[in-house]
Amino acid sequence: GQQVMQIPQYQHVQEGEDFTTYCNSSTTLSNIQWYKQRPGGHPVFLIQLVKSGEVKKQKRLTFQFGEAKKNSSLHITATQTTDVGTYFCAGVQNAGNNRKLIWGLGTSLAVNP
Amino acid sequence: NAGVTQTPKFQVLKTGQSMTLQCAQDMNHNSMYWYRQDPGMGLRLIYYSASEGTTDKGEVPNGYNVSRLNKREFSLRLESAAPSQTSVYFCASSDFSGRRRITEAFFGQGTRLTVV
Q1: What is the mean pLDDT of residues A2-30?
Q2: CA A108: distance to chain centroid?
Q3: pLDDT above 70: percentage of residues in chain B
Q4: Are B13 and B81 in contact (CB under 8 A)?
Q5: What is the DSSP string of B18-80?
Q6: B103–A45 C-beta distance less than 8 A
Q7: Better pLDDT: B86 or A26
Q8: Considering chain B, what is the average pLDDT of its residues?
Q9: What is the C-alpha to C-alpha distance for residues B61 and B93, in angstroms, rounded to an integer?
Q10: What distance in Å separates the CA atoms of residue A99 and residue B68, rounded to the nearest whole number?
Q11: I need a labelling partner for A47 at 20 to 30 A (CA). Which of A24, A62, B78, B89 fits?
């Protein structure tokens, strides 16, 4: 079936280091969404990418959508302790009159102060 | 706006007991979802409802039933709880079947369920 693979599963960094998580889909996606889940919390929407090759920035976070619309990445520059959490990508797949979200397994980020 | 409200937040059940998790959204969304989250397994879709009056199975529907009571409410029922159903359950809603360009999912706070 349709899958979105996300790597790495875990990442441990020193505060100030950069961090990147990658998502790869087995099929072409309509668009891709990114969510952040703080420890003990619920997933919260960060951004949606729609266009092939799209790059969007939110302060220290940079999101990219691949040219073939099958892969995406989230890069955090100079991590802070507030970045701790699990980052999920979710591919949006058009399915008839409905749309489906296909979730990656997430990347858990730990930041040492 | 309250967004997505999910109850209860915590629950302990004995094996074989039944319970219903309640979810309500006030954003007039068509689509609603129930997920379970286990360590290392990400979010797994149990059931979803694309619109009022319809429900469909997700990846892991066994042992669960759902009811889309109206556009606002989507409940998840465990008829006979098993230890394997110990998990964190999230309800979510989105405007997926609408015409909005950005169709993010909004999540409830989660229900931490332990079956002993």
Answers
A1: 94
A2: 11
A3: 94
A4: yes
A5: -EEEEEEESS--SEEEEEEEETTTEEEEEEEESSTT--EE-S--TTEEEEE-SSSBEEEEESS
A6: no
A7: B86
A8: 93
A9: 18
A10: 18
A11: B89
Q: How far apart are CA B8 and CA A62, in angstroms?
A: 36
Whether B51 and B72 have beta carbons less than 8 Å apart is answered as: no
Chain A residues whose beta carbon lies within 8 Å of the beta carbon of residue B55: none
- Which DSSP string do the residues of A10-55 spell out, in sequence order? EEEEETT--EEEEEEESS--SEEEEEEE-TTS--EEEEEE-STT-E
pLDDT surpassing 80 at residue A1? no
Q: How many residues does chain A have?
A: 113
Spell out the residues 6+ positions from residue A95 whose beta carbon is closer than 8 angstroms to its own: none
Number of residues assigned to chain B: 116
Tell me the one-letter amino acid at A14.
Q
Mean pLDDT, to the nearest integer, of B4-29? 97
pLDDT tens for each residue of B23-73 = 999 999 999 999 999 988 899 999 999 889 899 999 999 999 999 989 999
**Cβ-based neighbours of A15, under 8 Å, separated by 6 or more:** A79, A80, A81, A111, A112, A113
Q: Tell me the shortest Cα–Cα distance from B103 to chain A, in angstroms.
A: 8
pLDDT at B103: 82
Q: Which of the 8 DSSP states describes residue A109?
A: E
> pLDDT grade, residue A82 (50/70/90)?
very high
The answer to whether A43 contacts B107, with C-beta atoms less than 8 Å apart, is yes
| Distance of residue B16 Cα from the nearest chain A Cα, in angstroms | 27
